[in-house]
Write a structure and sequence with these properties.
- The structure is a single chain.
- By secondary structure, the protein is mainly α.
- It has one domain (8-106).
- The protein is built from 5 helices and no strands.
- It has helices at 8-28, 34-47, 50-63, 69-87, 93-104.
């Protein structure tokens, strides 16, 4: 992992490594090398932006086979390119936020609770006499 991410040189080296790692994941798909995933997630966490954190989370979900790599990896590669352009100053917050939103749509959502079925059918209810 890149040790000094706060400097311009450190951020540039970190983003270049991120681009290399996501390319490696795409090329080796559907198999996700745990070492590549761990390094990619670590580099993204060092960047620390909302987009980088979202990319890291979806990458973990792909590695855990909770998200289909065939669907997620192209979007992750595009998001990493967007992140790289953002770090380099070529894109603004609006574009980075749009990429984050797109990546987060890949995250699984919990199942909706089943609609409760009453124990007693409404047709069997009678009005009480008081």
């Amino acid at each position: 992992m890149t040790a000094v991410i706060g400097t311009t040189a450190g951020r540039t080296a970190g983003i270049e490594r991120i681009e290399q790692l996501i390319t490696e994941l795409v090329q080796r798909a559907p198999v996700a090398d745990p070492a590549v995933v761990d390094e990619l997630v670590g580099e993204l966490q060092l960047i620390g932006s909302p987009l980088a954190r979202s990319i890291a989370r979806v990458t973990e979900l792909v590695a855990e086979q909770l998200v289909d790599p065939g669907i997620a990896l192209p979007a992750l590669a595009m998001a990493c390119a967007t992140l790289a352009d953002g770090v380099r100053g070529a894109l603004g917050e609006r574009e980075l936020e749009a990429a984050r939103y797109q990546i987060e749509t890949l995250m699984p959502v919990p199942d909706r609770p089943a609609i409760a079925v009453p124990d007693v059918p409404i047709s069997s209810l009678r009005k009480r006499d008081r």
